[in-house]
From TrEMBL:
InterPro entries: GLPGLI (IPR005901). It comes from Duncaniella dubosii. It comes from the Bacteria. This is GLPGLI family protein. Pfam families: Porph_ging (PF09697).
Length: 286
C-alpha cells in the first residue's frame, strides 16, 4: 500500500480521539473552508527551480473565533498524540526512505504553522515546529485596512469582490463574498464584509485559493494545549525562522544526528544551498 495512503488511513481512524485530547474546544464550528497554499520559494530569480509542494489548509470558523491550520500536519499531530509509538515508527520509516531516495519529504507535509484567531480574546496565537523545536507566540489581532474595488468574479459559485491592502510588508489582493457575511480569511487576512475565498500578494509569492466549503460533520473551533512548546515573541519567532530557512546545515543532517545516524565519514554536518524567500509578513527585524 502506498505510504501516504497508509498514513492517511491510520490517522483518519484516530483523528477524532486525538483531536479531543489535544485541542481545548472553544465553540462549535459554523463551516470550514479548504484552501490550497502556494508558495514561491525562490523569490530572487522568480523561477521556481526548487518547487515547494502546495499545502492543503483549512479555515475552521466559529461565531467568535477561527483556526487556520495545515490539514496533513493536523492529522500527523493527532496521531503523534494518540499513538506516539506508531507515529515514531512511521517517522523513522520515513527518514530511512529519505536517506535512500535523498529527497526530504517530511511526514505530514511541509507546512507546520497553526493560527488560532481570537484565542485568547483579541489575540492571535501562532504555533509552529521548525529547526526541531516547537514554538508558540501570541500577538494582538491587527485588522488590515482595505480598499474595495469594482472588480467581481465567481469563486465556488459565490459572487466575489476584489479588495486591496498593504499589510505586514506586502501588498495583498483578496476576493471576498458578501454572500457569506463573515469577516474571516486565510492566514491573518480578515476584516472584509464577507468571507475571503482567494488572496495573494502583489508578486504572487503567496497564493491562497479556496477549493471547497464544508458545513457538515465538523469538529469544534479550539486551541492547542501547548505542552512542551517554547514560548516566544512574534519578532523572535520570525527572525529565528528566517535564520533556519537560510541556514546551510541540511535538515537531513540534523535529523540524522537526532537519531544517532552517521551521514558521512567525517561526521561534519552536510551543507546545502538555500533558496532565498521570505514569509507572508516581512516587517520584522532580519
Amino acid at each position: 500500500m502506498n505510504r501516504l495512503i497508509l498514513f492517511v488511513a491510520i490517522v483518519f481512524s484516530s483523528v477524532v480521539k486525538g483531536y479531543a485530547q489535544r485541542i481545548e474546544p472553544k465553540e462549535p464550528a459554523m463551516f470550514e473552508v479548504l484552501f490550497t497554499k502556494h508558495v514561491v520559494r525562490d523569490t530572487v530569480s522568480e523561477v521556481e527551480k526548487h518547487p515547494w509542494p502546495d499545502a492543503q489548509m483549512a479555515l475552521r470558523v466559529g461565531k467568535t473565533s477561527a483556526m487556520f491550520y495545515p490539514v496533513l500536519k493536523f492529522f500527523r499531530d493527532s496521531l503523534a498524540h494518540y499513538n506516539s509509538d506508531l507515529y515514531w515508527q512511521l517517522d523513522r520509516a520515513n527518514f530511512e526512505e529519505e536517506r535512500r531516495t535523498k529527497v526530504w519529504k517530511p511526514l505530514g507535509g511541509w507546512e507546520n504553522e497553526y493560527i488560532f484567531k481570537n484565542m485568547p480574546e483579541g489575540k492571535w496565537t501562532v504555533a509552529n515546529y521548525f529547526d526541531m523545536e516547537r514554538r508558540v507566540y501570541e500577538e494582538e489581532i491587527e485588522t488590515p485596512v482595505w480598499e474595495i474595488a469594482d472588480s467581481v468574479k465567481t469563486i465556488l459559485g459565490y459572487e466575489c469582490q476584489l479588495a486591496f491592502t498593504d499589510f505586514r510588508g506586502r501588498r495583498w489582493s483578496a476576493w471576498f463574498t458578501p454572500e457569506i457575511p463573515v469577516a474571516e480569511g486565510p492566514w491573518k487576512l480578515s476584516g472584509l464584509p464577507g468571507l475571503i475565498l482567494e488572496a495573494y500578494d502583489a508578486k504572487r509569492h503567496y497564493v491562497f485559493t479556496s477549493t471547497g466549503i464544508v458545513k457538515d460533520n465538523l469538529g469544534d473551533v479550539g486551541i492547542y494545549i501547548f505542552r512542551d512548546y517554547f514560548k516566544t515573541t512574534r519578532d523572535k519567532y520570525l527572525n529565528d525562522r528566517y535564520k533556519y530557512i537560510t541556514s546551510t546545515t541540511s535538515m537531513g543532517s540534523k535529523i540524522a544526528a537526532a537519531y544517532g545516524v552517521k551521514t558521512n565519514t567525517d561526521n561534519a554536518p552536510k551543507k546545502v544551498k538555500r533558496t532565498p524567500y521570505d514569509f507572508e509578513e516581512t516587517n520584522y527585524p532580519h
